[in-house]
Amino acid sequence: MSNETNDHDALYNPIAYIYEMTWYESKRHKNAHTWNYYLHEEDTRWGHDWEADEHSQRCEIRVIKVCVDDHRYQMALHNYNVEQKKRQGSIEEKNKN
Hints:
By secondary structure, this protein is an alpha+beta fold. It is built from three helices and three strands. It has a three-stranded antiparallel sheet with strand order 2-1-3. Strand 1 and strand 2 form a beta hairpin. The longest helix has 26 residues, at about 70-95.
């Protein structure tokens, strides 16, 4: 019975893997203050470059599994669309010059 339930859930609640960036006030803080979600790894690379000295914010990046109707997936999709619009605008700007 559980396999049937899992198959049913997979049909009606498709899953996706997305990138979650979790931000902490500093290296010593344990409670995050901000979460960002992205569809593609390349959109998280700036988090790796974040300067992590004792007083700066700390970023953790992980892959998470979510349903496509989950708010985190919707946020990742929104961030992707925003980034695509930025890229399209910069391409059009280059073509004008």
